[in-house]
Task: structure prediction
Amino acid sequence: MDFYSQPQRLTHLCNETLDAPMTEAERKAMIAAAARKIEELFDILRIDHVNDHNTRDTPQRVAKMYVEEILEGRYTAPPRITEFDNAQAYDQLIVTGPIEVRSMCAHHLMPIYGAAYIGILPSADGKIIGLSKYDRIVEYFASRLQIQEELVKQIGGYIMDMTEPRGLAVRISAVHMCKTQRGCAPATAAAW
Result:
């Protein structure tokens, strides 16, 4: 019996990273165990995943998608971000965005998609990072089950820790399919 066939004690919130990145072998074992559980769910829902050509490989595809895409930010190390000394003592506002946001609602497991905007007021004696790094930071924290307000806070906290700016604003405007699919309002915004 492998590690993932036994119920595990949950020690991390859904939008937190694990203590250490998973190895390739651990990822493969997780995908296999998750696929078995998705097969079990299909059986309960009376969806034929053995004979139906439409759903035959769906449990494996869904399990792989969750581990390697939707929840990737839980299982991998943060993106490598090289911060630089603010050699020119630049202290004016820098704004970047729209940055694509794709995440998954922690409440209903439905997609969240939209755009993030980040405004940084660098400290003259602090650090700066390249604009493309903000995209990687957003993608990393969005790649897990999320609540939009907590996603904004995680992105902001990480950037504050990396660069120690004089000021920072993070805004996400997103469509939550858990709302739109159930006939509720189309978009929400959160800011930090």
